[in-house]
């Protein structure tokens, strides 16, 4: 079973950060300081990676998504990208599927593959009781953020691009 790579950065209003990363399915949290309850959680670029031309979630991917849902549910406050805030239990996930730049041999190509990846994660989110705002496949339109300088091989870049990202969305007036 391939390891799961998670990029998950939590930024709080004060600028404190917390990072969560996994290797071979084991989650590790590194916290600067626990934020006071009035500070809001703001997650970015969350999601499992997939094998080439696959959209089924690994056991590690299931575990990672469940950990993210629990973390958000336990957050007293979440701030989405629009600046809207709500309780973690009121937040919904925008699920975004991605592929690497190579063409998929599957019917519908990369567009359909990215949509299937987003839908696979959305099914799991529903089973965990998490609300969804939207589900969209982006194919290879938005590559994964690259480190600077970027010394990754093509295989490493392609692995990072085969992912689903989860972005939090708060209802207006949340």
Features:
60s Ribosomal Protein L30, Chain: A; three-stranded mixed β-sheet; alpha+beta; disordered N terminus; 25% helix; four-stranded antiparallel β-sheet; 9 strands; 24% strand; 3 helices; 174 residues; single chain; globular
Could you characterize the architecture of this molecule?
The chain is 25% helix and 24% strand. With 174 residues, it is of the alpha+beta class. It has a single domain, classed as OmpA-like domain (60s Ribosomal Protein L30, Chain: A), CATH 3.30.1330.60. The chain has a four-stranded antiparallel β-sheet, with no helix packed on it. The chain has a three-stranded mixed β-sheet with strand order 8-7-9. It is globular. Residues 1-37 have low confidence and may be disordered.
Give the SSE map:
Elements: E1 8-11, E2 17-23, E3 26-31, E4 43-44, H1 59-74, E5 78-79, E6 85-86, E7 92-97, H2 109-127, E8 131-137, H3 154-161, E9 164-169
Parallel strand pairs: 7-8
Antiparallel strand pairs: 1-2, 1-4, 2-3, 5-6, 7-9
